[in-house]
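Troubleshooting: if your tokenizer reports a length mismatch, compare against these two reference records.
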Amino acid sequence: MHDHRRLGRELELFDTDPLMGAGLPYWLPDGAVVRHVLEEYVREAERGAGYRHVYSPVLGKRELYEISGHWSHYGDDMFPPMRLGGEEVVLRPSLCPHHALIYRSRSHSYRELPLRIAELGGMYRSELSGVLGGLTRVRSIQLNDAHIFCTLEQAVAEARAALDLIRRAYDDLGIRASRYRLSLPGDSGKYVADPALWRRATALLEEVLDGIEYESVEGEAAFYGPKIDVQITDPAGRESTLSTVQIDFHQPERFDLHYIGPDGGKHRPVMVHRSIIGSVERAVAHLIEAHGGAFPVWLAPVQLVVLPVADAQEEQALDLVRRAEARGIRAELSGTGNGTLGARVRAARLVPYQAVIGEREADAGCAAVRLRDGRRPGAVPVDELLERIGVRAGDRGAELWAAA
């Protein structure tokens, strides 16, 4: 059983420091590579699905969250306001209100809808110290968030498309959903009191889930509406939510959002919230545990390690590293100063590809290839090796070495 907290420190992916504070991890270089590649993957997937990216500030006036409903329904999870002159500003607990303002800043025609805007943005939750742990429960969160502003008739199709995007991402990441949950309101007072709103949104999400096995659970909804939660399970059997899709009638009304319809009149859009991988922190934590630190080729912080047998082969080994990097392959040299060949091979056990260069390989322009799964394809011309690695990284497949 893998624990991402232990592995993350052993593999030098992330760490914490009491001077930075609990629940505020920092990313070390290899962890930053994983995070960066994951974030770029998400942006690419979103661009391909018709999303446009925005940036918005991590602070907002208290009044913003009073309008959205966060202040009254979510205040216990927010950091206290800070006074700036005569105003109070708050670290945002959510990106939704900011995106509502971005939509509201321009007039929109029905011809522009659906309008899909996305952001990988920071937000902050005032988590209690007792629940903080590793990357799964943190106070500073980088959220993969998006909001689709659409007509009522478009809402189901947009939510279904978001679920399809989530499924494709899970396939590429080598992880799987343990179940789908329709999260509904409970009896507590933390939910918006508008029964008609809840019925409409719930009916639409039930339509989205038609043909998908799911469970309905009360008390897990967002304060403003029901949601589809895509659940994952860690090696210890603990379940958590990674991705979500929500249909929201509440915030478009609170922010008085509208579009101009074909009749020339103002109409209220529906706001579909969706997150492909949820928080980057939780996603990376799950990836560490699901793969035991042996990330898929395209996501691995180091994809190829080159090991000269002796000092005489170090120049050829360095040349291979440079050629790999020129092709966009993340490669490192592990020279003789790092120990015996056997020790260096063991140290690089989680790297997908190891290229050993001895005297024979150097003379022939080859490398003796070792794969992370224990296979040894043998001596391979350097150009062929780099081509194979590039293809495997590009197709995001699980197979390290396809048959020639």
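Reference record two:
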Amino acid sequence: MTTSTRGTTKVPAVLVLEDGRIFRGRAYGAVGETFGEAVFSTGMTGYQETLTDPSYHRQVVVMTAPHVGNTGVNDEDMESRRIWVSGYVVRDPARVPSSWRSTRTLDEELAAQGVVGISGIDTRALTRHLRERGAMRVGIFSGDAVRDDAALLARVQEAPEMKGADLSAEVATAEPYVVPAIGEKRFTVAAVDLGIKGMTPQRMAERGIEVHVLPATATVDDVYAVNPDGVFFSNGPGDPATADHPVALMRAVLERGTPLFGICFGNQILGRALGFGTYKLKYGHRGINQPVQDRTTGKVEVTAHNHGFAVDAPLDKVSDTPFGRAEVSHVCLNDNVVEGLQLLDRPAFSVQYHPEAAAGPHDAAYLFDRFTSLMSTVPMEGQRA
């Protein structure tokens, strides 16, 4: 990626998809060029949380909501230390932020962090194209980076694909850190950071959990050095088929019978640990309005999603695994994609979506309570035998 941060209001920009479809608009954010996987997010709000979600690493996010940037940017709604999207696509950027919490414009923040974007294009047409053809590689070019169409298309087609990408270590913390419990400490959790969002340990801290956030490269000895009552595997970017180390670590946790909870990438890791396969979705689920049914209760929730891969597990039966019986606990009502797994003979479960959902919805917040209940009912004795 190459960028500059000069004024962008009249700088021409071009978006080029790997199948040759081209959209022309104006630069938004930094000026230069960037590459990634083109995906779309259906959220009507929460764009700052989207931009700073590490799961979007190496993806160019297309916003289906036409008007973006109206609440500006502040320092409280960041989900991580930086913007992780590799590019940003909007139709109608706000000219002036209207929120009292705003400290700067979204355009300024994108430019300051070197994020190349494009505005003024038909995002509805682009979204329909991605729904029909699937997520694909894309490039955004603006200013001096704009050349003839054939040359730009060749650059896009040379970019790496998301399938086969091993990215979690690129976004995870390099050093362990602790998020203290709020109020009385009830439990200690070792959280393996595969691209964790800041609100996740916050949601656990609110429930009296002291969270030790560990790097993606953490070993089983690192995990049990904090004497955990439970182990958590976070969300994160990339292809779960490449995540051999997290899978091996999770299997070691399952062997010891420690209560385990995973979300998003963590759900895919649990799927692999149990012997299920994973596969790439055509265009994935992204946004904060996805309907999911908790099959253990029959309740339907509106949930926040960001995943382009899914677990290939049978919906209609209980499966035998190396760690006992397992079943699909949650399913997406739009397309029957597996949205959760649970073991019936060991204290472990996961969901494919984001129950922390800082920007909402909050229908799935009960899952953190389910995790605390699991830790309450499983004795520590024998977990680290």
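Descriptive notes for reference record two:
- The chain is about 20% helix and 35% strand.
- The mean pLDDT is 94.
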